[in-house]
Amino acid sequence: QVQLVESGGGSVQAGGSLRLSCVASGYTYNYFCMGWLRQAPGKEREGVAAFYPADGSTYYADSVKGRFTISLDNAKNTLYLQIHSLKPEDTAMYYCAADPFKSTGCQRNPPNWGQGTQVTVSS
Description:
Layout: E1 3-7, E2 10-13, E3 18-25, E4 33-39, E5 46-52, E6 57-60, E7 68-73, E8 78-83, E9 92-99, E10 112-113, E11 117-122
Parallel strand pairs: 2-11
Antiparallel strand pairs: 1-3, 3-8, 4-5, 4-9, 5-6, 7-8, 9-10, 9-11
């Protein structure tokens, strides 16, 4: 069973940076995709970034392009999300997600989730 544990969230001022981490366990082969989603109170869940290990391709939501960078360290089984130039509208719970077998993908309704890490950005 896939387990995902996020860390790295926190409270920062606008313009600041954070690096979120997600340690994955329970599956020893390449995932079809791994990604990050976020959800703010009263808003729909949004897929912000995804990584596809087979070819190294990435996906970013328009709202985060140029500020967020997703990467995967296979040796550490850890997915990262580097965030720069944080904005108050980035405030949300950030969830790590994974799809081992190309079922529902990582951008909207992934089959595996972590517990989330809170990011709060003050103006």
